[in-house]
Design goal:
The complex is a heterotrimer. By secondary structure, chain A is an alpha+beta fold. Chain A has three domains: about 190 residues, Aldehyde Oxidoreductase, domain 3, CATH 3.90.1170.50; about 325 residues, Aldehyde oxidase/xanthine dehydrogenase, molybdopterin binding domain (Aldehyde Oxidoreductase, domain 4, 2-Layer Sandwich); about 150 residues, Aldehyde oxidase/xanthine dehydrogenase, molybdopterin binding domain (Aldehyde Oxidoreductase, domain 4, 2-Layer Sandwich). Helices cover about 30% and strands about 25% of the residues of chain A. Chain A has a seven-stranded mixed beta sheet, sandwiched between helices. In chain A, strands 7-15-14-13-8 form a five-stranded mixed beta sheet, with helices on both faces. A four-stranded mixed beta sheet of chain A has the order 18-26-27-28, with helices on both faces. In chain A, a hairpin with a 2-residue loop joins strand 22 and strand 23. In chain A, helix 9 packs parallel to helix 18, helix 14 packs parallel to helix 15 and helix 17 packs across helix 18. By secondary structure, chain B is α+β, with helices and mostly antiparallel strands. Chain B folds into two domains: about 70 residues, Ubiquitin-like (UB roll) (Roll), CATH 3.10.20.30; about 60 residues, Orthogonal Bundle (DNA polymerase, domain 1), CATH 1.10.150.120. Helix content of chain B is about 30%, strand content about 15%. In chain B, strands 2-1-5-3-4 form a five-stranded mixed beta sheet, with helices on one face. By secondary structure, chain C is an alpha+beta fold. Chain C folds into three domains: about 50 residues, Uridine Diphospho-n-acetylenolpyruvylglucosamine Reductase, domain 2, CATH 3.30.43.10; about 110 residues, Uridine Diphospho-n-acetylenolpyruvylglucosamine Reductase, domain 3, CATH 3.30.465; about 90 residues, CO dehydrogenase flavoprotein, C-terminal domain (Enolase-like, domain 1). Chain C contains eleven helices and 14 strands. Chain C is globular, with a radius of gyration of 18 Å. Chains in contact: A-B, A-C, B-C.
């Protein structure tokens, strides 16, 4: 290992600009002569617009233009994934106009855009817009939505988007009939607001001379936005539409999707003949960034007398919100139900999932997307089964783990896991957590009047999204490959153009390490370029922990092509057979001789080709590769959380978090640990702090940091993280992915720890977020004599 | 229009502004110092923290007019030429940032902490950071960064 | 934010006349509440009168048996004042716990007390410590000053200039913060002076800060946590929201009061 290659904790290249205030985020950009857009949003969750008069706003000082849904006659914001109901019917896919047409379906829905010389003038003018609403009852609760009555969309009866299933219900029922014990659980996976610290922003510009549109946007995947907006919404051909995602301040899923504001500013730019800039206020982010999670589930686990799992039945309702966001339909189906085997050998699984429309903000993938919901369900249920059967928490897991020699392992829910060693991560995590010392720590807590608990979570997830043929057959409307272009410059430096996008993950460092390791170059000779559709040929972007496993593999593939071509050049110059050229340590040598060419010499020769044979050797040294993975990758691991509870107040303190993850080969251990920390904070946040609350009228109660509890530094401890690696079996790097593991593994470990702490009082359940009041109330309820039923 | 004059990163600046102009707006839009960020509208997130007369403040909750005559230091003015400030260096050494959006405010707040308390405990660091929200790092490496900076400042 | 006229008078008299002359003038002290409110366009003052240049509103003085704090003194200055730490350490601790460091660097005692936010810390401290609120027109006892949520005895053109705290024998403040906003969800300040005890509660009451008389009576005879055993505050007049029901707040008042007495 070199100090800049694979496995080195290289300090991040991008930090220099971020630490000195020289990052370039979308709102930092200033276009000449730009205008400012303010969007008038619905204050009602469900209403018909009976009057919309913008004349006074148009006449207000500084106003350049005002547009409504009547003006903006464009295509519907599309959904990228089709799920079919179990009866074969395609999902309901209601129209989603960027500016509402006659009806609003959630608080925050776009009604009109005011474009003015200044933001203050645009805002002031928006107050002059006259809107009359025929307010209709809002449907917020998922069960009520399914009962029909009020319809979010007239063409979706009972507000049902789809009713989907996986597995054979009859076979699972048969397994339950033979069970020794059945554990049951009702789970709410709480809705959360992603809250990337950079609010979304978009700047649309139009060059009349070239006819080219440019959209600068806070996106995790600029090419996907170009495709969705260009082809479906605005009908702008790709060669006339440039989408740039510059520095992006966090995404966590919320910046994958194509949002209305992107289409609005791009569409409006030629109308006003000037660039149009829109930046969300945090309040708008709360209202309009796609939310995450929001499932209600009933599940049952059948066990034999030894605690072996015989079958699993799951019935889930998933909230889609007011419209279908880009990836929403696949989250509670193909990213959730397919993970319900978890790390266990459960032979029979059936899951039914109903997706439902409500008058709330659209819901889509948020860090983990489906897999956290699956892990939370399973790990809570396994914890309960262990308690009910009197089996230790680690023991019940060990009895049911897929053994390390069973890979590749075909689960009953479609996926085939390629590698893993769940016992290894469990045992390492137990050591990190000093599980053996827990009884003494618990006794010490009790001596000072506190309760203490220890919770486990052993999880697996699917990432490296995704094999295009597989996801295509499951309804994905695009392939999920990645591209890379490696341009070797004449002096031997390298520019990489990747379709992956970094919004905090550190690609400019990690990808450079791959290049340094493979081509033997120092980091200062490597540039990683991303985020601009005019620079990068194509890309599917960054989500689902896919950058390294898919984008990194594309880069490896392109570099191998560069090496192959370089060998041809070296063979030509060194007058040797191509097969005799070896590449090592940045040098091409003729094997068995001392004849060699440095990488830089080959590069220069490629661009100064004095006597290349025209028939067989082209000048230049630049290679493109597309990589489509063979399978998902399957990171997994064990998280152990220890909590202490103050029974007087219900305040729960996280005492220790021990996370041992198998993320495949680690390219940069420092960055891997950082990703794990961030995921843990979000998982612990969901478990203890964060919960999105709507009232019955569909008003978002948790609409700012005054009411939505973001994890802060003093809510969290330092974390103990480590890895226990098995290599991915189907990619060259052996990498799996680390972006989401922390958020997937930790929530059930937290709640299981709280249940463990309270179990002595007879408490068996706790819902997320486990706020002090909920914990205190559970303790009070446990103290009360059993109410007559 | 009121006129404001102040010193920003060592340079005297003067501008005609609307009274309602926030300090962060003046810095970002008038002076084009876009390193100071806006992450919320309720004065909670701390992405906008700068120093005014040596103390950390939220530039989103101060009028530019209130900073009249003050000495303002933003993230752009923290390094000594090409030499990073020890706090910046520590954040880099310890991977104390990921997306970088909260980072300017986080660094400016952390510098103010060490101005007050040369050797803060982990608990004191975490309490001090109450007004700075980070969504990427889980704070783990931010705390480590500040601990390292404390040994060098 | 709507635009406004901005004034920075150099004297209290000029500030008072600017306030009296404005159509809908507002005083800005630290601005920690007013500016966010204006940003959300929930307030639209015609004129903003900034007291920052009124020199005699800043500073802390002590005669050993009381401390007087100028209205424009920041929370950080109160927290760091050796006079306050010496005479009423509980008051320094209250200031140290307000908001976050940046709020403490800007926010002032005058702004906080005049605003009487129902979840602010200072009103509880003023009430429990039996403070005197001094204005350009006169003085109020804390009991008379806080008249309800966001409501005080101040006239529209009256300016708070200082708060005077007598030294108690013992005092302490315990806060249970709202997990999201970090304002007090329940904050209890207790003080013992001579044979009397005062207990003030913030964050919980529907009408803002209030005194818990039953607790005061119990503590007057025995200033010890166990004196509060069996005393419960009724949930009837307490706030209920997504973070805490009235019942939970009532319970927390008891817990925080005991902890404050223990810490005093």
């Amino acid at each position: 290992m070199t100090d800049t290659g694979i496995g080195a904790s290289v300090k991040r290249v991008e930090d220099a600009r971020f630490l000195t205030g020289r990052g370039s985020y979308t709102d930092d950009l200033e276009q000449p002569n730009q205008t400012y857009a303010y969007i008038l949003r619905s204050p009602h969750a469900h209403a018909a617009i009976t009057k919309l008069d913008v004349s006074a706003a148009k006449a207000a000082p500084g106003v350049v233009a005002v547009f409504t849904g009547e003006d903006m006659q464009v295509g519907s914001i599309p959904c990228g994934w089709q799920v079919n109901s179990k009866d074969g019917e395609p999902m309901k896919e209601p129209e989603h106009p960027p500016l509402a047409k006659g009806k609003v379906r959630y608080v925050g829905d776009q009604i009109a855009v005011v474009i003015a010389e200044s933001l203050a003038e645009a805002k002031a003018a928006a107050e002059a817009i006259e809107v009359d609403y025929d307010i209709q009852p809002a449907v917020v609760d998922m069960n009520k939505a399914l009962a029909g009555g009020t319809l979010v969309h007239d063409d979706a009866p009972n507000n049902l988007c789809y009713d989907w299933e996986i597995g054979d219900a009859a076979e699972v029922d048969a397994a339950f009939a033979n069970a020794h014990h059945i554990s049951k659980i009702d789970i709410v996976n709480n809705r959360v607001v992603p809250n990337a610290m950079e609010p979304r922003a978009a700047v649309g510009a139009y060059d009349k001379a070239s006819g080219e549109y440019t959209l600068y946007t806070t996106s995790q995947n600029p090419h996907v936005i170009r495709l969705l907006m260009g082809a479906f919404v605005l009908q702008i051909p790709e060669h006339k539409l440039r989408v740039v995602a510059p520095d992006v301040g966090g995404g966590f899923g919320s910046k994958i999707y194509h949002y209305a504001e992107e289409a609005i500013v791009t569409w409006a730019a030629p109308k006003v003949g000037r660039p149009v800039k829109w930046t969300a206020e945090r309040t708008e982010s709360f209202l309009t960034d796609a939310h995450g999670r929001d499932h209600i589930t009933h599940a049952e686990l059948a066990l034999d007398e030894n605690g072996k799992f015989l079958g699993l039945k799951v019935d889930t309702i998933a909230n889609m919100g007011g419209y279908l966001s880009t990836f929403a339909p696949c989250v509670p189906t193909y990213l959730y139900a397919t993970l319900l085997a978890g790390v266990y050998t459960t032979p029979l699984i059936h899951a039914n999932v109903r997706a439902v429309f409500t008058n709330t903000t659209p819901v889509d993938a948020y860090r983990g997307a489906g897999r956290p919901e699956a892990a939370y369900l399973l790990e809570r249920l396994v914890d309960r089964a262990a308690r009910e059967m009197g089996i230790a928490q680690d023991e019940i897991r060990k009895r049911n783990f897929i053994p390390s020699d069973a890979f590749p392992y075909q689960t009953p829910v479609a996926l085939q896991y390629d590698s893993g060693d769940y016992m290894a991560t469990l045992e390492k995590a137990q050591g990190m957590a000093d599980v053996a010392g827990f009884p003494a720590r618990k006794a010490a807590s009790e001596a000072k009047g506190k309760l203490r608990g220890l919770g486990y979570s052993t999880y697996v997830e699917a990432c490296g999204i995704a094999p295009s043929a597989v996801v295509g057959s499951l309804g994905a409307r695009a392939g999920l490959f990645e591209s890379a272009n490696v341009r070797v410059n004449p002096t031997g430096s390298v520019t990489v153009f990747t379709g992956s996008h970094s919004h905090g993950q550190g690609h400019e460092t990690t990808f450079a390490q791959l290049v340094s390791d493979t081509l033997g170059l120092p980091l200062d000779q490597i540039e990683i370029s991303h985020g601009d559709t005019n620079k990068v040929a194509f890309g599917m972007g960054t989500y689902g922990s896919r950058s390294l496993a898919v984008g990194g593999e594309a880069l490896m593939k392109a570099m191998n092509k560069v090496i192959d071509k370089s060998k041809k050049i070296a063979a030509h110059v060194l007058e040797a057979a191509e097969a005799d050229i070896e590449f090592k340590d940045g040098k091409f040598t003729v094997s068995g001789t001392d004849k060699e060419m440095a990488f830089g010499e080959v590069a220069l020769t490629a661009y100064v080709p004095h006597n290349f044979p025209h028939e067989t050797l082209e000048p230049g040294l630049e290679e493109q590769a597309f990589y489509d993975p063979m399978n998902f990758t399957y990171p997994g691991g064990c998280h152990i959380v220890e909590v202490e509870i103050d029974p007087d107040t219900g305040v729960t303190t996280i005492e220790k978090v021990s996370a041992c993850d198998d993320v495949g080969r680690v390219i940069n251990p420092m960055i891997v640990a950082g990703q794990t920390h961030g995921g843990l904070a979000q998982g612990i946040g969901q478990a203890m702090l964060e919960g999105c609350v709507y009232d019955d009228d569909g008003q978002l109660i948790t609409g700012s940091y005054m009411d939505y509890t973001m994890p802060r530094a003093d809510d969290l401890p330092s974390f103990d993280t480590d890895t226990a690696v098995t290599l991915c079996a189907h990619n060259s790097l052996g990498v799996k992915g680390v972006g989401e593991t922390g958020a997937i593994g930790s929530p059930p470990a937290v709640i299981n720890a709280i249940v463990d702490a309270l179990s002595g009082l007879g408490v068996t359940d706790m819902t997320m977020p486990a706020t002090p009041e909920k914990v205190w109330q559970a303790i009070q309820d446990a103290k009360m004599p059993m109410a007559a039923e | 229009m009121p006129t404001v004059s102040m010193t920003v990163n060592g340079q005297a600046v003067t501008g005609d502004i609307e009274a309602r102009t926030l300090l962060v707006e003046y810095l970002r839009e008038n002076l084009r110092l876009t390193g100071t960020h806006v992450g919320c509208d309720t004065s909670q997130c701390g992405a906008c923290v700068v120093h005014v007369d040596g103390k950390s403040v939220k530039a989103c909750t101060m009028l530019a007019a209130q900073a009249e005559g003050s000495d303002v230091l933003t993230i752009e003015g923290l390094a000594d030429g090409d030499d990073l400030h020890p706090m910046q260096e520590a954040f880099r050494n310890n991977h104390g940032l990921q997306c970088g959006f909260c980072t300017p405010g986080m660094v400016m707040s952390a510098v103010d902490l060490l101005n007050h308390n040369k050797n803060p405990s982990e608990g004191e660091i975490r309490e001090w950071l109450e007004g700075n929200i980070c969504r990427c790092t889980g704070y783990h490496n931010i705390v480590k960064s500040i601990q390292e900076a404390a040994t060098k400042m | 934010m709507y635009d406004f006229n901005y004034y920075k008078p150099g004297s209290l008299a000029d500030a008072a006349s600017a306030l009296a002359g404005a159509e809908d003038g507002k005083i800005v002290a630290g601005g920690m509440t007013l500016i966010p409110t204006m940003k959300q366009r929930l307030a639209q003052p015609s004129d903003l009168i900034d007291l920052a240049a009124v020199g005699d509103l800043k500073g802390i003085s002590s005669d050993g048996s009381s401390v007087t704090i100028g209205a424009m003194t920041t929370h950080a200055e109160v927290a760091g004042s050796s006079d306050v730490q010496l005479v009423i350490p509980a008051l320094a601790a209250v200031a140290e716990g307000i908001g976050d460091p940046q709020v403490r660097n800007c926010g002032t005692i005058g702004g906080s007390v005049a605003n009487n936010d129902p979840a602010a810390d200072y009103p509880a401290a003023c009430l429990a410590l039996n403070a005197t609120i001094v204005t350009n027109k006169g003085e109020y006892s804390a009991d008379d000053f806080f008249t309800g949520m966001f409501d005080t005895a101040l006239d529209e053109d009256e300016i708070l200039t200082a708060v005077k705290f007598p030294k108690p024998d013992k005092a302490a403040y315990m806060k249970f913060p709202n997990p999201a906003s970090r304002y007090a969800m329940v904050g209890v300040c207790v003080a013992q002076t001579g044979g009397a005890a005062r207990v003030a509660v913030t964050g919980a009451g529907q009408d803002g800060v209030f005194r818990a008389s039953e607790m005061e009576a119990a503590l007057a005879s025995n200033f010890a946590p166990e004196a509060l055993d069996g005393i419960s505050v009724s949930a009837d007049d307490l706030n209920s929201d997504i973070h805490a029901s009235a019942e939970y707040r009532a319970h927390l008042i008891g817990v925080m009061a005991k902890r404050a007495v223990a810490a005093a």
